[in-house]
Amino acid sequence: MKVKRTQNRIIKNNDMSKGSTISKNSSINENSSINRNSTINKESDINKDMNKDINKDINKDIDKDTNRTMEGKNKSIQEVLRINRDGELEYLTFPALSEIPFVKHLFTTRLGGVSEGIFATMNLSYTRGDEREAVDENYRRIGQVLGCELSHMVLSHQTHTTNIRRITREDCGKGITRELDYENIDGMITNVPGIMLVTFYADCVPLYFVDTEHRAIGLSHSGWKGTVNRMGAHTLQEMKKAYGTDPEKVVAAIGPSICQSCYEVSEDVIQEFRAAFPDKDLQNRLYERKENGKYQLDLWEANREILLRAGVPDNHISVTDICTCCNPTYLFSHRASHGKRGNLAAFLGMCET
Ligand SMILES: [Zn+2]
Q1: What separation in Å is there between the alpha carbon of 254 and the centre of ligand 1?
Q2: Where are the beta strands (DSSP E) in the chain?
């Protein structure tokens, strides 16, 4: 299946100031779908275009950081998200998180499950009307990839809050093999080995956090409400309280969700963003007004900015280049399906020691 990649972003870019995503006017745009079967050729073409736009310092940084061949260098620019295949099953991983030995993570796609109809095939939601047995089987398949029993998973209860729960051994299996005994939990943090955190998506933004110093993790759901209320900063604050987390030692990832080109919002949403982010330059980067009086809002950039302001270094933040709404047969999208859909899930867990 062809997966559309949205604008390219650089993840190793120490020397660039804020707003370092590549110009949206560059030749790499929404419509440049990268066929994975001819990745190498297309990536090198794209790289040529990118080199025109990016100053040489950045390339030097990339060289330093990767110390690889030309092909490897292209990879470090392009591969913010890796597509993994295991039979029918496909799932996405962030290379930056895969490098950390004490965590396991992935983001699901629609492929490789047993659910049918609007839930086809890898639906991870028990609450949207799918067959329980099908969802159980979907979890078993993901559990197999992660090497994780269902009884070690802990599910969120998302209602667009900024509430964060500290997950302990007591919570193991909640929402999946045991009843959920909490509600309104949009973020979870833990430092307990063996626990796998699970949150749900179909356009909203997944935020992954790994504290590499204290061995702790956080996983948060940030839709427009979570974003305007700075869910990312709240999660980091809770990790600091619980584990002494220093944002400078955090590796973060902003996961597959709706891109700016797909995300039209009305004036009332923008009013809240204006109040939350009074900086005019930032406002110009976050949304564009259209002739119809609506706006196109960039949740990826907003969440990246929130993490930067909270103290996470720029080169520690991976930003998705895959949009849920641009890829509605590959990923569940609330917008694209008009609400007739299952849920994708983000998984982030601590390895057993
Ligand atoms: Zn899109």
Answers
A1: 15
A2: 82-86, 89-93, 103-108, 153-155, 164-166, 187-190, 196-201, 205-211, 216-222, 250-254, 264-265, 287-289, 295-297, 317-319, 344-350
